[in-house]
Amino acid sequence: MTNSQVFYRKWRPTRFDEVAGQQHVTQTLKRAIATERVSHAYLFTGPRGVGKTSTARILAKALNSERTDDGEPIVDSEVSVAIDEGRYLDLIEIDAASNRGIDSIRDLRDAVQFQPTSGRYKVYIIDEVHMLTEAAFNALLKTLEEPPPNIVMILATTDAHKVPATIVSRCQRYDFRRLSNDDVIERLIEVCEVEEIEAEPTVLEMIARTAWGSLRDAENLLEQLYISYGQTGEDGIPSEITEAQARELLGLGDTAVSTELASALLAKDAAQALTVINREAQRGADLQALRSGAVDALRVSLLMKAGVEDSITQGSEFAETMSAAARPARLNQILHILTALGQADIKGNSSSPLPLELAVLQATTNPVAATASPAAPASSGSAPARPAAVPQQSQQDSAGQAEPDQSASTPRRERTPVEQQWDKVIWEMRRTRNRKFVVGSLLRNCEIPEPQGNKISLRFKSNSMKNNFMEEMQDKRSRDALKAAITGTYGSELELEVRSPSEAAEEARANAGQNSGNGDSSADPVGTSDAQESAMVRAAMAMGARVFAEETPEDDSESESEPGV
User: Burial, 268: exposed, middle or buried (Cβ in 10 Å; 0-12, 13-18, 19+)?
Assistant: First the structure.
């Protein structure tokens, strides 16, 4: 079949049902026509090549020609044929990109005063309406606000945000979507069957991916491939368009090679990634196309890792391969790889593999673990992984010589099972606050407890923390919440003891006295006491002093162990 028209014009839809991927628009328009509820102004917005102008033409047909009960125009009617051939007088198409001034809109404003020549409606299609000047928009506004009878204006644009709100508010707006991969491939298969084009299935998928949801672009690319490789030979048999030919014409890299490079980067295998680059450079491959293909593959991995279904590649072998490769990788790792590849300056050194090699090394040897956020708990019943408690630097702070923080360069140690159990209790109490303090925060300031029989002892790092905790425990709701958290974590109900530093030190002295028999224990230093909370005492300890004894008030009720909650 021969036809002088290019594919995108030859295969322009002529009925609402032929518009691909825009059923949410076409169904509404058909219903409006069938019920005679036609608006005087419409705004069609969306990406290029998705059917905005074609739908506007079909709407003009449905308004002026014979139609079915459901609002579809009859394609072989006189009006429909005249519109398809571009000779219908009551359909006026204006390109706002070349007629953007106020004079053009003034001429339009004067023309709309005349009644339709032969049809029921005079239809104006203003394409790329966002290109009009501010004065032209103001001149158009009056016409939209008080339109003459039997006039329908259809405004089409790819940049709706550039259209003044005063114009948008006077139109019925319809947003056209970017076509999915399945919609594009379905139409390309139809074109191939009628035009007798033979192509490998992967070719149509590559065209859809390259067109990025634009059916017009996809039809143009298919026609380019057909002219170059697919026309009938001397034997009368059409030549089959291969994947290699499509990659060459479209400037795409080998999908398998790009996937191999992306998989090596996700696995942090710098040696394999460099091997792929050098192999392709030696055979003269386009490194820019290789980088683009790898970025495309990593994008698919990124979306799948984030739980987003990519309509362009969904269901393909390519998508399944990248999904498997991305499964062990972290989201921030993929982001880091994409950033490294994006910064590679290959345009100026297209023949040299060095920029791409440097990008690969940066992507595989410089992970972004330092900027990664802490992982959330696996479930609501598990505790979050929390860094180990930073030891108090009282001596360094008092001397004004605090050591630099090395947490950024020192890897975190694994939490012990005892620590993980206590982390879970803290997590369960993270929001319990009935008086002044959050119980979970208070529990972070005690030594990691370990059950002893049916008892668990909390040794707080300061008397004030112990006092705050006991104040919260006066409320029954706090006591019940802590009891439930401990029982759920350790599997049994435990008796709770609460101790302050002075009480812990007294206990340590008593134990030391029992171990040493009649030895002199008065010279033994006290471990942690109220005296050490004084800045002056801490400063003295930093210079080598030791605390041997502490006077405790007789009425200090905190010297006694507090039984369970």
Answer: middle
**Could you give phi then psi for residue 492, rounded to 5 degrees?**
-155, 160
pLDDT (tens, 9 = 90+) of the chain, 565 residues, equals 444 578 888 888 989 998 988 999 999 999 999 998 999 999 999 998 999 999 999 999 999 988 888 889 998 899 999 998 888 999 999 998 888 888 888 888 888 888 888 889 999 999 999 999 999 999 898 888 888 888 999 999 999 999 999 999 999 999 999 888 888 988 899 999 888 888 887 888 888 888 888 899 999 999 888 888 877 666 667 788 888 888 777 766 567 788 888 888 888 888 888 998 888 888 777 788 788 888 888 888 888 777 776 654 554 566 667 777 777 788 888 888 888 888 777 665 556 788 888 888 888 875 544 444 444 444 444 444 444 444 444 444 444 444 444 444 445 567 788 888 888 888 888 767 666 677 777 787 788 888 887 888 888 877 777 887 888 888 888 888 888 888 888 877 888 888 777 676 676 676 666 655 554 444 444 444 555 555 555 555 555 555 554 444 444 444 344 444 4
Tokens of 344: 């590679």
Q: Where are the beta strands (DSSP E) in 452-540?
A: 455-459, 495-499
Residue matched to tokens 């802590």: 482
The pTM of the full predicted model, rounded to 2 decimals, is 0.54
Q: How many residues does the chain have?
A: 565
Give domain limits for the chain. 7-175, 181-250, 255-369, 415-513+523-565
Dihedral, CA of residue 426, residue 431, residue 437 and residue 442, to nearest 10: 10
CATH class given for the domain over 255-369:
mainly alpha
Mark 124-146 as b/e (b = at least 16 C-beta within 10 Å): bbbbbbbbbeeebbebbeebbee
- Token readout for 405 is 């923080």
Q: What one-character-per-residue DSSP string does 68-93 give? A: -TTSPBPTTSHHHHHHHTT--TTEEE
Of 158, 218, 222, nearest to 196 by C-alpha is 222
Contact yes or no for 214/48 (Cβ under 8 A): yes
* Joined tokens for residue 312: 């362009």
Closest residue by Cα to residue 280 from 242, 312, 247, 250? 247
With the C-alpha atoms ordered 456, 460, 463, 464, is the resulting torsion angle positive or negative? negative
Q: Thinking of the domain 181-250, which architecture would CATH place it in?
A: Orthogonal Bundle (1.10)
Amino acid at 20: A
**Beta-sheet pairing, 91-95 with 198-199:** unpaired
In our burial notation (b when 16+ CB lie closer than 10 A, e otherwise), range 154-190 reads bbbbbebeebeeebeebbeebebbbbbbebbbebbee
If you classify domain 7-175 with CATH, what class do you get? alpha beta
> Cα angle vertex 350, ends 347, 353, to 5°?
120
How many Cα atoms occupy the beta-carbon half-sphere of 196 within 13 Å?
Answer: 10
